[in-house]
Amino acid sequence: MIKTIIALASFVAAVQAACDNACSGHGKCGAKGICDCFDNWGIGLGHLSGDCSERICPFELAWVDTPDSVGNHHRYAECSNKGICNRGSGECECFPGYEGKGCQRTSCPNDCSGHGRCKYIEDMPFGQVQADYQNAVTGIDSFLPQDPHTFPYYGWDSYKTRGCECDPEYGDVDCSKRLCQHGNDVMDQRDDLLDPHQYQVQKLNFLADQSYLENYQNRDRTFALTFKSKLNETFTTLPINFYSDTGGAGGTDGLHEFVLDIENALERLPNRVIDNVEVHAGVDATNHIHVNITFVGDNVQGPQNLLTVRSYLCGDGCSPKLVGLELELETQTITELTPADFNSYECGRRGKCDYTTGQCQCFAGYTGLSCSTIACLV
User: Fold this and answer.
1) Is the C-alpha dihedral spanning 316, 318, 322, 323 positive or negative?
2) In this structure, are residues 143 and 97 in contact, taking their beta carbons and an 8 Å threshold?
């Protein structure tokens, strides 16, 4: 009888020491009947061990949370505090506007409407072209950087916050609108009408490598120019032969041919995006050549993006195929020598843009792609 009672008490104690639901197969039964759950298993919002029957979702830096005792924010939180954990699948069901593992990043508005790329904040560029950054901030003299400048970014939302970079001819935060042509407001007048028109002049400085100039190595070399329009369209010229001092007395003929090559290359860009330019050049020293490009066409009135000089080797498979130039390091510049006194407004400020079609709806009395032509006088 006593043996039976002892056995029964031992059985009851063993049952009481067993873990709940055998830890659901997702943990090990530890002392005092407490489950030691495997990674990413637990139960409840407190992620207690319990019977290890529920999944734990990924943790990422919280978008919003309460501060700690010293005011720090953005601790790690399940689903970044921007989603609800599905305990069955272990995946976050993110709130609208958030996506990814643990709802770690923002969605781009309307997925950029199919007309742009969704980019992280650290990949968003400064200005429209590389020269915008060089001239405004650094003063670095080089043709080598080709793309708009981006900055290192170490904020808490690095690789989390994203925005749209729109394709050419599209704009707005979700890239949903077709951009319209920009043009000069024909009714805008200068203070003194006797003053001549002032067109934008961009100045290019080439400083050839001395050793290569002495051997005339740049004579048969080629480069190209890239123009970015107000609609963010990018056009690159055919290869341009670099200045050769062979020709008439003092190299005049060679320099004249160089100027004509640049003019023709720019004016042959598609869609008459540059309908007229004037080019002048000079040789300041044995290896220094400056080129002034004046935008005088109706399609390029007002301030334009600075040109990008493609002076590097671009061999087989490249378009255009370039031999490249041998230039002194950090001695090349492209700057705005003279600002235009023309303006450049959407639809010339004399019409409304139909963002569905990208065409200007000109007000009465005006016509043209950018409403920059007076149709009648009232």
Assistant:
1) negative
2) no
